[in-house]
Amino acid sequence: MLTLIQAVVWGVIQGVAEWLPVSSSGHLVIFQQLFGLEVPVFFDVLLHLGTLGVICVVFWKDILGIIKAVFRMDFKSEYGRLFIFILLGSIPTALIGIIFHGLLVSFFSNLLVVGVALIVTGAILFFCERRESKKELDAKDSLLIGLAQGMAIVPGISRSGSTIGIGLLRGINREKLIRFSFLLSIPAVVGAGLFEVGNVAWSAVEWIPVLVGVITSGVVGYFSLKLLIRFVKEKRLRWFSWYCWAVGLGLIILAIF
What we know:
- By secondary structure, the protein is mainly α.
- The chain has one domain.
- 76% of the residues lie in helices and 0% in strands.
- The chain has 12 helices and no strands.
């Protein structure tokens, strides 16, 4: 049974860790394994929809521009090309999620995997800002960033950290990279939600705590997303690497000893 307090706690965790580059799935595993807490599948799905709503609020102009370009069949405009790049980036994400779903699910009970993955995330964040960010996004970049997003299915690999990190290593313009990274998350979150929704017993859902958790994740997620955008623009992603390394090392020690 999901209580209101649990719903708020999970909403805060989801809202903070979904956008800040510290891996929301990794923190989900940490809290479940170390504190004996369990998040129902349906609640996890809806929490992601809450943070997805944040993307729609922050990037609504871009989403509207893409929709207009698609209806006009104008794939040579900026938004038309962006739509194509999102499609390209979604391909490796979908393939990884479908082919390796069973293996990836098994990682959600393995603190050692989460620890190692957080170390990897920290390394990406530490080294990613050493290049100038002037390059325009292209098809190859889209596929590579989509591959990074697919790898972020592993708990401990941050989706935002890996996609933005790989983009920065490729030297992509920061403003355009931020927009692409978060718009690319929309089909991934929707697809994952649809994949899991068939396993949910909706008749047993207690909607009041669920709605409280979703609203909490949305509100907290809005501010964490704004904070991340600011950190990317100010070249301060490296700050998060120390956190990822500290938590990752702690988990590895716990798992081994």
